[in-house]
Design goal:
The complex is a heterodimer of chains A (341) and B (244).
Chain A: E1 2-10, E2 13-20, E3 28-36, H1 39-45, H2 51-57, E4 60-61, E5 65-72, E6 83-86, E7 89-90, E8 107-108, E9 121-123, E10 128-130, H3 137-140, H4 143-159, E11 166-170, H5 174-186, E12 191-196, H6 199-202, E13 210-213, E14 225-228, H7 235-245, E15 251-254, H8 266-272, E16 275-278, H9 284-296, H10 299-305, E17 308-314, H11 317-328, E18 334-339
Parallel strand pairs in A: 11-12, 11-14, 12-13, 14-15, 15-16, 17-18
Antiparallel strand pairs in A: 1-2, 1-4, 3-5, 3-9, 3-18, 5-6, 6-10, 7-8
Helix pairs in contact in A: 4-5, 4-9
Chain B: E1 2-7, E2 26-27, E3 30-31, H1 32-41, E4 46-53, H2 58-68, E5 76-80, H3 85-99, E6 107-112, H4 120-133, E7 135-141, E8 165-174, H5 175-183, H6 187-192, H7 196-202, E9 208-211, H8 222-240
Parallel strand pairs in B: 1-4, 1-6, 4-5, 7-9
Antiparallel strand pairs in B: 2-3, 6-8, 7-8
Classes of the chains: A alpha/beta (341), B alpha/beta (244).
């Protein structure tokens, strides 16, 4: 079946292209309904990735956070119209040790293969998870980002030592907020502190035990473990502060993406015996766990509602540009495209 | 009940010296008509899909459907086209009447088999507004100035472009109304009224405008076939870069 694909061909320029989907194959067909814009999409849209990366990856359909409805499932597991969350990571081989999102052979949508800005998305059936109809679809649109936090917190649980009196999260943006909301519900007994730059944004973290400006952290405040959700050039100062305020043998979970190499004070990492581990993307188990958490703690959805930004109905390419431009000018919040292609 | 009616009855005379009717030519790896049928196949709302084919091509159409759409074939019925577009549509309505029966809500979504680039949304909105208003027509805003001439030599009028649209398909109709309207026309009127939407308009019925797409092109001329293949051409290049 001819399928309309909206590919970014150059910074700020989308064009219509077509793919041919095999209707007699093993893939199910999803019609995207709600797509959420991520910083990674913006880096392509604005041409902020290095020139050689842009050249190698474009043309490419953007967006790796989204939900849709099933139109056709050759396995019969899903019925026409079922709502599903789409998983952007596609493993191509089994590995009992390395998680699917870290395998070199895995493909990731909107980073080497077409993302969800398409009329239909053909996917291997295990690349979707059912979405409960009770969950607000606008919030469900950025489930992928939530699953990234769930993945990082699950890794924290595996890696961090057992003394877990307090945890600090650096970053008051979307990722920091989502990680904090999920951490609060996955580990309600651990004291949670948020460190950010914008007091207005920090006030949204009302569920945390404490909120501090990066310029005003009490000198005697120490955390057993920390999460870095800052990214960009500010990663360096965030990691520096974390190292200063973490107890010996603590773990630092790195989630923030930066285009540039970030210097780290390894002398203090050695001296304190710290463990730094990176977390990126997520896999099917993380999506399933996220859906379980939504079900067990419906209030999570309520907290996530706070970061829903603009909702843009998209029927044509100017609407796509409008959504991306609006997203650039927001201070916090997720821009959701109500996809009507 | 809602039916898809794919009009492949015509034998094109504008494609030049090709042996096959244009709907059977290949775009990418499949015949155009198969691409078009596939777009209807993924819609669950259609009770059946009718493919109206030239008599001489009915068996070929059936075997192509079996070959390319094996698991979908049972929902697709190949019928013989009529002498005109409207007669072809009437053949599908007659079939519905004889099998499932025609009722007040029977809706047909008619579509040119040579427009394979239509989208899910266009079909969806045709169904939605066809049910709501009794008829819907797919159009795009005119980008060229339209010039009216009665004699073909001199301009009679230049209508305001802001009010001009170019017709595409699908065109969607309440089947019972269309049948009544069509058979109320004289033979002379039938010859002139080649567009079913116009019949509705002349009978004082509202026809809702569904927004089409510029790329929902009708493959009429050899040039269009080149454009259609170029639409898909980039795909081969991308596949060679192993994209998903």
């Amino acid at each position: 079946m001819l399928n309309t694909v909206y590919r970014l061909v150059a910074p700020r320029r989308f064009e219509v292209e077509f793919s041919d989907i095999n209707l007699t194959g093993k893939e199910l067909i999803v019609r995207p309904t709600h797509l959420s814009i991520c910083h990674a999409d913006q880096r392509y849209y604005q041409g902020l990735r290095p020139g050689e990366v842009m050249k190698q990856k474009l043309p490419m359909a953007l967006i790796h956070e989204g939900i849709g409805t099933v139109l056709y499932d050759p396995t019969g597991k899903y019925s026409y119209g079922d709502s599903v969350v789409m998983i952007p990571n596609t493993p191509t081989e089994e590995d009992s040790v390395i998680a699917e999102n870290y395998r070199r052979s895995s493909k990731f949508r909107a980073s080497g293969s077409d993302g969800f800005m398409q009329e239909h998305v053909a996917m291997v059936p295990n690349r979707v998870v059912p979405l409960d109809e009770s969950i607000d679809k606008v919030i469900a649109a950025f489930t992928e980002l939530v699953s990234v936090s769930v993945h990082a917190i699950s890794r924290f649980d595996r890696i961090a030592h057992e003394r877990r009196r307090s945890v600090g999260i650096w970053g008051d943006g979307n990722l920091g907020y989502i990680t904090a909301v999920l951490f609060r519900h996955m580990f309600p007994e651990i004291k949670l502190y948020i460190i950010g730059v914008d007091m207005e944004k920090l006030s949204q973290f009302s569920f945390a035990d404490g909120r501090f400006s990066v310029t005003d952290i009490p000198g005697d405040l120490y955390f057993d473990h920390a999460f870095e959700c800052v990214g960009g050039g500010a990663s360096q100062s965030a990691i520096e502060q974390i190292i200063a305020h973490i107890e010996p043998e603590g773990t630092i979970s790195l989630l923030g993406v930066s285009e540039y190499p970030i210097p780290i004070n390894t002398r203090m990492v050695l001296e304190k015996g710290l463990r730094l581990f990176g977390s990126s993307r997520s896999g099917r188990t993380d999506f399933l766990k996220t859906m379980e958490l939504y079900k067990a703690h419906p209030e999570i959805i309520g907290y996530l509602r706070n970061i829903v930004g603009a909702q843009v109905e998209v029927r044509d390419i100017p609407d796509m540009n409008r959504a991306f431009e609006m997203d650039i000018h927001k201070s916090i919040g997720k821009t959701i495209m109500i996809w009507d292609k | 009940m809602i039916y898809g009616v794919i009009l492949a009855g015509g034998i094109g005379s504008r494609m030049g010296n090709v042996e096959k009717p244009k709907q059977y030519l290949m775009v990418g790896s499949k015949p155009i008509i198969i691409h078009t049928i596939e777009k209807f196949c993924v819609h669950d709302k259609f009770e059946k899909l009718f493919v109206l084919s030239p008599r001489a091509w009915m068996e070929t159409t059936k075997s192509m459907i079996r070959q390319y759409l094996g698991n979908q074939a049972e929902r697709i019925v190949v019928l013989e086209g009529g002498d005109t577009r409207n007669e072809t549509i009437m053949n599908s309505i007659r079939y519905i009447e004889e099998t499932d029966g025609l009722d007040e809500d029977t809706l047909i979504v008619t579509h040119d088999s040579v427009r394979p680039f239509l989208t899910y949304r266009i079909i969806e909105e045709n169904i939605k507004y066809g049910l709501e208003y009794g008829a819907a027509d797919t159009v795009i805003r005119a980008t060229d100035t339209i010039v009216y001439s009665k004699d073909g030599s001199f301009i009679g009028d230049v209508p305001n472009r802001a009010n001009m649209y170019q017709g595409q398909t699908p065109q969607t109709f309440n089947a019972k109304k269309l049948k009544e309207f069509y058979y109320s026309l004289s033979e002379e009127e039938k010859k002139i009224l080649t567009d079913a939407s116009k019949i509705f308009v002349l009978k004082g019925e509202q026809v809702y405008l569904v927004e089409g797409e510029v790329f929902n092109i009708k493959i009429t001329y050899p040039y269009d076939l080149q454009v259609a293949n170029a639409f898909l051409g980039n795909e081969a290049a991308l596949e060679s870069k192993s994209r998903g």
